[in-house]
Write a structure and sequence with these properties.
21 helices, Rossmann fold, alpha+beta, 1081 residues, twelve-stranded mixed β-sheet
Length: 1081
């Protein structure tokens, strides 16, 4: 995988030479030099340890900004003000926003688009929101080393985690590049203070002998790889993306590795410093300048760029103060830093600088009428093509926003002037040195009431970022200099209407609808059409795996398998094309247990507007301003809290999930489920809590005997108070609206209710946010309810104005039971009490996990060779990149009886549908053949190493020409003591069993290396068949069968192997091993 990653970035560097060397050009088809290739032998790629079904390795999306470097900044921020004698922002709190904070928000949205388009991103203020930080230098205790590393003791540039307070004897470490295999790794493992999302950055000095350096980020979803070319950029923090980490220290799912493997040229990789999180400001500043006075006391994200860069410049042998690099002015510091981080050798067209501000005229909303976006130009000293960059940014935003009029709270400005020239010290060519173009985009006017309201809308901030990314691409297309010209393809819009349904044990089908698209690349308001989709999976709902790709812009579903049927999984979908990768869909969930469809989670919470913004205290205990953080407003993953609560309360209940839109359009039928949990969060009138179609469907579901838990803080306000479904609310949902706000965040159980005896609990007030787990939006206005006919109070508000917080209504006369909360379920702060609340609801619904009537079964037998690399496995497993162990013989039915043509099969994996740990042992496993009567002495048995539900048979000698039978004793049992249901029909069954415990498992495996035409013998036809394919790099299973030695190419070696085996035939199969009387018998 490592080398494949490198060659994706530079696919033509060495393939031609290698192909010629191997004699592969004697072919009817030329070798595709764009294909990724792998020379080294790696361990077979297996599912994540203990997490079956997940793809362990992912990578930064590739797009039209591959190879480009974008420097970006958000203007202003907290800094020392001599006139005020304190830390102050540059702009005041006007119309509930402070420009200084909005600029950083805007930069963060933009950085995400850049990363998804393949760019290297260098932010001049921190990205996102994470007040925790862990910074590891090369000499920190959390850093470990393998292989050969050398020490740099002289610089000239390095990072020091204590900012030079103590002299670092070893400035950084370096290792020699190895293009063939990885021989040196540095692992940076932080002690994460609290679980959550952390931006990750790397600091490495740049130089002409550096390389396209591989970083591997290990997070709770697996591993993500990306590369930074430190010949082009360094000497400051480079953004690697934002990832989810658990609290504590764990190299496997909480670390960053630096590898010395690279095919990108250069001679050394650099291991200096890695940053997790942004932290709190720690730079003293006072009346006597930087270094005197006090720290700000604010998160680094809210401080200005000068403060961030002062701490990020690092140390140097030629300077003693950061001012030598970035000066002492926040105006020019960002572009000074960009110029010094950008290698002088970078050709024009490699890099670009974009700064974000918002504008103002009079400063008085009563008189400020100017609106819209403006790109800025340095009138006296512009960068080479600055006017075009400014025009692109201003025009893209204004035209896109006008094209989307009606989607946002206000229509956009009709401004026709897109640029403004003036004295702007942040973007002068004197500072950029002619190396790149630079502009500031004034995204709108924060002193205009309509513009300010739009700037406080996360949907608008997102679109402004997208339009700026498109303008960046436009400029790099038009002014690429001597660099490769990017294609005019923009990353797609995100998929919609997502569902996750499990109908078969171990499988989940995820479906979606493609988002809107535009033609014309950067000239369209939407993204370019998708050419495929990627489905990501997770077991915590926050850290996602490497994803499984499915090609085709019209594809709308993907079935994933190999999952542990006993644990919840979570899914999100992105669209992809040559431009990059879209934003992700909302998160869906399913228990991959198949069988009875018991419970459906419906996510109907789509609201995303300024009313949900975080209220940040500003200069006093009463004044607040707003930050725009989509994850705080609506993270779109509340299926996680719901399914976690269900699973904690009653593990094994079969759960599917869907967006409410898929219910409306008929993709999902509520009637297929016993119970539904409907998430409405703070959904309200503008977004429809339940529209007329949903009201009809919910009414029919309840009338048909289905049970419903529906929760949200605005259901009564929308349906009853605003009369958008008053009759439905009162008659079907069993309550009437009393008040819009209970003025309390404490909930108590009502006497004689289903929650009687439950401890009081709190719901979220949204007072803290730092991208940590458990930090949920402010409920703000929990509805006060009154039970209707046949209903009763279930929960009460404690304190405030009091009143009924939830109602319950037992089903009668064939109707289902109902529970409705006047607050969102996911806002319950304590996870244990969330689970207890859910348990009481499920008890009221009389819903329990299905009885485990089925015995454990075998769901697949997989064969592979220990010498196969990741590419070899991907080609035969049919499951996408990184998704499998090898060739599954039973999941494709008749594949079982197909002759294995390869000469090195020495691994057999047996996949079960549940845990059989402790019984998959040598006494219960047998492999017999016709040529080799008993393979027992050649076998090493293990369980759980290749996946939580996978048994491994490792052979010390590869299979040769033989007919074999793999047998498993019926004494194999699950953790509940239920015996294996083992009966198998050769060439037909996809899973073992006859629905009753007991029965020996017998499975035929045919090994006949060289039998390309599947005739049952190796003959001249096979020799001719291999010769006809010489020169091909196999790209499907059929061609892979002809690559006898699985070297990755069909060549003379395969021809010689087949010719040497001419005359061999497959023997008749042997009788299975007889285990005799067993405990199961």
């Amino acid at each position: 995988m490592v080398l494949m990653h490198w060659l994706r970035r530079a696919p033509q560097r060495i393939l031609g030479w290698f192909v010629c060397l191997c004699g592969l050009l004697a072919s009817h088809r030329s070798v595709d030099t764009q294909r990724a290739w792998s020379f080294e032998t790696l361990e077979p790629r297996l599912p994540m340890a203990g997490v079956p079904g997940l793809v362990p390795i992912g990578e930064q999306p590739s797009g039209t900004l591959d190879g480009k470097i974008v420097y970006t900044s958000g203007g202003h921020g907290w800094q020392w003000n001599d006139n005020l004698g304190r830390w102050a922002t540059d702009r005041g709190n006007l119309l509930s926003m402070v420009e200084d904070f909005g600029n950083q928000d805007q930069m963060s949205y933009y950085a995400d688009y850049l990363l998804r388009a393949g760019a290297t991103v260098v932010p001049m203020r921190p990205v996102g929101r994470q007040a925790n930080e862990v910074v590891l230098d090369n000499d920190s205790p959390g850093v470990t080393w393998s292989g050969s590393w050398s020490n740099n003791t002289a610089g000239p540039r390095w990072y020091d985690e204590d900012y030079g307070a103590a002299i670092d004897a070893i400035k950084y470490r370096f290792a020699s590049v190895n293009s063939a295999s990885e021989t040196a790794v540095a692992t940076y493992t932080p002690n994460i203070p609290a679980a959550g999302f952390y931006p990750v950055y790397a600091w490495a000095s740049m130089g002409a002998n550096r390389t396209d350096q591989l970083y591997r980020i290990h997070h709770t979803g697996g591993e993500t790889q990306l590369t930074i070319d430190h010949r082009q950029v360094g000497n400051g923090w480079v953004y690697l993306g934002t990832y989810h980490f658990d609290a504590g220290s764990s190299p496997s799912d909480g670390s960053v590795q630096i590898s010395n493997q690279s095919s990108g040229g250069g001679s050394v990789v650099i291991a200096d410093s890695i940053r997790f999180g942004n932290g709190m400001g720690d730079l003293p500043w006072g009346a006597n300048g930087i270094g005197s006075g006090n720290v700000s006391g604010y998160p680094r994200e809210d401080e200005d760029s000068l403060v961030w860069l002062w701490r990020g410049v690092g140390q140097g042998s030629s300077f003693s103060s950061p001012s030598a690099i970035i000066g002492t002015s926040n105006v020019s510091a960002p572009i000074r830093m960009a110029e010094q981080m950008n290698a002088d050798s970078n050709p024009y067209g490699t890099s670009v600088y974009v700064g974000f501000h918002s504008n103002a005229t009079t400063g008085n909303p009563d008189t400020a009428t100017s609106r819209g976006a403006i790109g800025l130009i340095s009138a006296a000293d512009p960068t080479p093509n600055q006017s075009s960059l400014a025009a692109s940014t201003g025009r893209q935003i204004n035209e896109d926003m006008r094209a989307l009029d009606g989607r946002f709270e206000h229509d956009w400005s009709t401004r026709t002037s897109n640029t403004l020239a003036g004295a702007f010290g942040e973007i002068t060519n004197a500072r950029a040195g002619g190396e790149f173009d630079a502009t500031i985009i004034e995204v709108a006017f924060h002193d205009n009431t309509q513009d300010a309201e739009l700037l406080r809308d996360p949907k608008v901030r997102d679109q402004l970022a997208r339009s700026t990314y498109e303008a960046t691409l436009e400029h790099l297309i038009n002014f690429n200099g001597t660099t490769a010209q990017p294609a005019n393809v923009t990353l797609p819009s995100p998929p919609r209407d997502v569902t996750a349904v499990s109908k078969t044990t171990g499988e989940v089908t995820v479906s979606w609808t493609a988002g809107p698209s535009s033609t014309g690349g950067f000239n369209g308001a939407h993204g370019s059409p998708a050419s495929g989709f990627r489905v990501y999976a997770s077991v915590d709902g926050y850290g996602f795996d490497g994803g499984t790709y499915v090609a085709g812009g019209s594809v709308s579903s993907l079935t994933l398998d190999g999952f542990d049927a006993s644990r919840p999984y979570y899914f999100k979908v992105v669209a992809e094309n040559a431009g990059g990768q879209s934003l992700a869909s909302e998160v869906m969930t399913a228990l991959p247990a198949g069988g009875t469809q018991q419970l459906l989670i419906v996510n109907g919470y789509d609201r995303l507007d300024r009313s949900q913004n975080f209220k940040l205290p500003f200069l006093s205990s009463t004044a607040t301003t707003e930050h725009v953080w989509t994850r705080f407003n609506n993270s779109r993953d509340y299926t996680v809290q719901v399914h976690q609560a269900i699973h904690a309360a009653r593990p094994g209940i079969h759960v599917d999930s869907t967006s409410n839109e898929a219910v409306i359009n008929g993709t999902i039928n509520l009637a297929n489920y016993d119970s539904v949990v409907w998430i409405l969060g703070r959904e309200s009138t503008a977004d429809d809590t339940l529209d007329s179609t949903e009201q009809t469907l919910v009414g029919q579901f309840l009338a048909g005997g289905g049970n419903l838990l529906i929760t949200g803080s605005e259901i009564g306000w929308d349906l009853d108070a605003q009369n958008n479904g008053r009759s439905f609310f009162r008659n079907t949902l069993g309550a009437s609206y009393v008040a819009d706000n209970a003025n309390t965040y404490t909930i108590a159980a009502a006497s004689n209710s289903i929650f009687a005896g439950l401890a009081d609990f709190n719901i979220s007030d949204g007072s803290e946010f730092s991208s940590l787990d458990g930090q949920t939006y402010d409920v703000a206005f929990p509805d006060v309810l009154s039970p209707g006919t046949g209903a009763q109070a279930a929960l009460m508000y404690s304190g405030g104005s009091g009143g009924v917080a939830a109602v319950q209504k037992a089903g009668t006369a064939g109707q289902g039971s109902l529970v409705m909360f006047g607050f969102p379920f996911e806002s319950i702060v304590d996870p244990s009490l969330r689970s207890a609340v859910m348990d009481n609801v499920l008890e009221f619904f009389n819903l329990s996990p299905p009885a485990l009537a089925e015995s454990p079964r075998v769901i697949d037998v997989i064969v592979a060779a220990s010498g196969w690399d990741a590419a070899a496995i991907d080609l035969v497993d049919g499951l996408g990149v990184g998704a499998g162990n090898g060739l599954g013989l039973s999941m494709v039915g008749s594949e079982q009886l197909t002759n294995l043509t390869w000469d090195a099969i020495d691994r057999i994996y047996v996949v079960f549908d549940r845990d059989v740990a402790g019984s998959f042992v040598e006494a219960n496993v047998a492999l017999v053949g016709t040529k080799v009567a008993d393979y027992q002495s050649l076998m090493q048995i293990s369980y759980g190493q290749a996946g939580a539900l996978v048994g491994t048979i490792a052979l010390s000698t590869p299979l040769n020409n033989d007919a074999l039978v793999l047998s498993l004793s019926e004494a194999i049992r699950d953790t509940q003591g239920t015996f294996l249901d083992g009966e198998w029909s050769d060439g037909v069954s996809l899973r073992s069993g006859d629905d009753s415990a007991g029965g020996q498992f017998n499975f035929r495996i045919h090994s006949l290396p060289g039998d390309v035409d599947q005739s049952g013998g190796v003959n001249i036809n096979d020799v001719l068949g291999v010769n006809a394919k010489r020169g091909i790099l196999p790209d499907d299973l059929i061609e892979a069968r002809v690559d006898i030695d699985r070297s990755g190419g069909i060549n003379i070696s395969d021809l010689l192997l087949v010719n040497a085996r001419r005359g061999t035939v497959l023997p008749a199969p042997p009788s299975p091993h007889n285990f005799g009387q067993t405990e199961a018998s």
